[in-house]
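Summary for the steering committee. The consortium agreed at its last meeting that each partner would contribute one worked example illustrating the joint modelling workflow. Our contribution is presented below. We chose a case with several input lines so that the handling of multiple components could be demonstrated. No manual editing was applied between input and output; the record is shown as generated.
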Amino acid sequence: MLILDCPYCGTSADETELSPGGEAHIKRYGPGSSDTDFEGYLFGRENPKGVHFERWRHANGCGKWFHAARCTMTLEVFGTYAAQTFEPPQEIKDKISAKRPGWSWRDFS
Amino acid sequence: MKRYSAFAVAREAARYHSGWERAWRSPMPKKSYDVIIVGAGGHGLATAYYLGKNHGITNVAVIEKGWLGGGNTGRNTTIIRSNYLQDPSAAIFEKARSLYETMSQDLNYNVMFSPRGVMMLAQTQSEIRGYLRTAQANALQGVKTEFITPARVKELCPIIELSGPRYPVLGALWQERGGTARHDAVAWGYARACSDMGMDIIQQCEVTGVDQANGQVTGVKTTKGDIACKKLGVVVAGHSGVLADMAGFRLPVESIALQALVSEPIKPCMDVVIMANTVHGYLSQSDKGEMVIGGGTDGFNNYTQRGSFHHAEETVRALVETFPMLSRLKMLRQWGGIVDMTGDRSPILSSTPLGGCFINCGWGTGGFKSIPGSGWGMAELMAKGSSPLTDAFGLNRFAEGRFIDESVAAGVAH
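What follows is the complete predicted structure of the assembly.
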């Protein structure tokens, strides 16, 4: 069972207490954008076998949205961080680099 | 290839079964092929088979990183049905169902197709409306289904409890000609027939890269060396995203784990397939007597092939209410498979941005039932560039907003 630490209330919550919210750091394209960008925003998804970044909500707890960095192959959690950011904090990236040297995800590495 | 028959059984019985030959060869890869199919599961092998049978293309290799039929082909709950809502889905799933009817004769391999009937329970008012609509759509599509009363449900399946406190059975969508088949036999039968046509099935051979020149695919890099090809078919279900990444394009697909479990074997008690979508459970009894139970999917991307205990618990808890006799059964095994989900819950059978490279993925939780139809359409697509079965399932449907929306029709994983 997946266990994530909520960065807001500090609770160590298992997955029955959380709601998955899909891929993190998706850039929203709207009116005036190209068709390709809009299609990518709506449907294109990263589907890595390895390091992945996601949105989660502490639904049966404090109710806050947050981000998690996780491995989709081993379910190892590298860390969780606040929702109000466009990219993972350096500290999380360093933790991932220590365990998965040479990782990359979209433009991050 | 020596044909299997009653005579062959008698002949081998008379000589201590010493004459059975291997069902398929295990060759080393050649330097090049006309077509390479990545993935020796049901869909990949069916694609290869119909390329040979319908289009005369037999210089084909099917390469597989693990063992043949060891992915989702060996991990599903073997349900076969075609009661979908949208016309393109009904066409390809009904093609598949009808091919299952004659598959054993066609392949000379007993796939144990058992058209025992599939029942989708309506346990809420909205499900009644949904299934009535599906029954009407199926009538127009030429797929035989009907909406049946609770009394008829009880007659077909005596072990069911109609008046459960939370989810009473209010009716069901009944497809008499749906059923089950032996999943491994489907893969093995296709593999044997492909090998007989001279195709190479290469197991334990992982693709590590896709070679291309001038926007055209030229071959694949594998753990058994580089292999050249003119056309490449990617039929790898859960790992489609990984292969697409190697070929240099993105897919609107996410991989998640779907799980199933089986009970200890018991005497025959249920000779239909039951799907209860409100409570996310599917139930049938295997020929060995085990109750085969399909459950829900995880809500997040993963490649773990194991599932999670609380989903199994949810499924069983809900099913026990509708089938009280299950409460005394011990569960024997539980496992997971990685399913590739698209946004509209319909598959992708399409050419790709890379020339000569075709992809067949996105079957999500409905892959097994569609194997022959998928192979038939994919083979035609790869041989001719288009197929009436697959044209609606192109990758471009997302950009064009032309969805084949089965997520609304099914409500859940289907």
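The interface with chain A takes residues 239-242, 245, 250-255, 299-304, 308-310, 343, 398-399 of chain B (CB under 8 Å). The CA atoms of residues 93 and 260 of chain B lie 22 Å apart.
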